[in-house]
Amino acid sequence: MNFFTLLAILFGFSFCSLFIGNGPVVIQALHKIYPELQSLENGNDTTEIKQLHRTGFHFQPHRHWMNGPNGPMYFKGIYHLFYQYNPEGAVWGNIVWAHSISKDLINWKSLKPALSPSKPFDINGCWSGSATVLPGLKPVILYTGIDTQNRQVQNYAIPANLSDPHLTEWVKPDNNPIVDPGTEVNSSAFRDPSTAWLSLNGHWNTIIGSRSEQTGMAYLYRSRNFLNWTKVEQPLHSVPNTGMWECPDFYPVSHFGRFGLDTSVMGNWFKHVLKVSLEMTRYEYYTVGKYYPMTDKYVPDNTSADGWSGLRYDYGNFYASKSFYDPMKKRRVLWGWANESDSVQDDVSKGWAGIQAIPRTVWLDPNGKQLLQWPIMELNRLRRKIVMMLNQKLVKGQNVEIKGITAAQADVEVIFSFSSLDNAEAFDPSWVDAQAVCSQLGSTAQGGVGPFGLLTLASENLEEFTPVFFRIFKAEANHVVLMCSDARSSSLKDGLYKPTFAGFVDIDLSSKKLSLRSLIDHSVIESFGGGGKTCITSRVYPTKAVFGDAHLHVFNNGTESITVEYLSAWSMRSAWVN
Predict the structure, then answer these.
(1) What is the pTM of this model?
(2) Three-class secondary structure of residue 474 per DSSP
(3) Which of 31, 52, 479, 493 could form a disulfide with 92 if both were Cys (CB 3.0 to 4.6 A apart)?
(4) Among 414, 418, 365, which Cα is nearest to 396's?
(5) Does residue 548 come out as left (phi exceeding 0), alpha (psi in the -120 to 50 range) or beta?
(6) Where does the signal peptide begin and end (predicted)?
(7) Separation of alpha carbons 30 and 504, rounded Å
(8) What is the percentage of the chain residues whose pLDDT exceeds 90?
(9) In CATH, which of 1.10.10.10, 2.60.40.1180, 2.115.10.20, 3.40.50.300 is domain 65-375?
(10) Do residues 93 and 56 touch, judged by C-beta distance below 8 A?
(11) Mean pLDDT throughout 496-516?
């Protein structure tokens, strides 16, 4: 099938992915470069793969470096995950589009890489992109290539055999690139084409991350045939002083219910979400707003900041995310990369680096101001032994161990309640940075209502533990809920990045209850506060609280007594990732 025949078929939904990396172009945003460690001849592929701190139910390759998801996709009964991968070492470099498939988003089988640098338009790098399933179930990958001039250009690839549901082989036609930066765009800051969507006027649209000086922006390109793309005069959206925008994601969310929407849906009964990954901060932020297809503009609502201090998917180790629409389950699913927090030497020694966070279902909060996130329901199939706790009162300074589960690999859901908020500490209006507040107050300093929560990956004598907890304050007009995941006491090992992560939880406390769910998996703790309003992922590396020596507690260090109204903790089986 020739190129024009294939791309004459365009209609359908799609998915995108992420940029990460460097190469001959000097863009060292996310990764320091270690040329001497990038390849097997220097990195020694005979290195024993260390099992300590490897996860049991998160996605990660058997060995070597992995960073962001290059977009998931559902095709003919199979979920596809592409991701940035170094097949020759445990540091960033030699990046290919690795490819794995699954029937349930939990258990995975790896295939040969889908894309590798090989042609003039990508010889210096196959960076992030997206995929669109065209009419007739015909997928097309869009991705950023680094060409012979070290420019970032946008290319496409197609399956070699559409009858193969595994999409094992991909072809990169020679008429690439299909989007050239030209002279108008900074060719060293022009990457990560998003999921394409179809407008009512018959144009396909995609956004590409960029910057002009320090103004971050999402350039909008349109095409009638998916081949010939034209840059719209103005970006879809831009924000001063935010720097380079990576991995832009743009999709609709319904005003009502949890069901997801195809990226190309049109109407007045939904809002749009624009997410970008900020190169300068290594955080992501998103806004909820209104898309005006007739004028090619996106206007955020005024309910959250449009910039560094805005809403985040996750306030911890979570970057380069990508969502996709799952037509079988009628949901939008979010993937994100949880990078390591240990040293390069540690990664080389253990033979691997990088995991993917558990896929999350995302939908619009009924208040219309933010998203809610929750682990996909398929994860529950890995639950086995359960321990429960009901109506356990915790007075000031008390902690109670949850015994009978494998605390190093567990899924914990808990509802805390409190009889009064009268003892809540006063909230300082200058506390706009939740992470700074968490760092200042911590989990052990006595408060009024809180700190209370979980002590995860705790050693027997609490030399090591990672607390995930709430603290409630009284502001002038309402109460403010702070959620923290504090890695400072997570390990006795030196040389680790052990930060506090935190976010505020916009929640009504009239019920005097707060919920928390934490997924604990050896070196990662993913936590969802307030039913998924605030999410925090932490990477930790305990030395004592490992395998069967890990413990789990509930605790309260506030003067107000807290009741564990309901707690369920499950030991988790390992997923199958081959």
Answers:
(1) 0.93
(2) strand
(3) 31
(4) 418
(5) alpha
(6) 1-18
(7) 26
(8) 87
(9) 2.115.10.20
(10) no
(11) 97
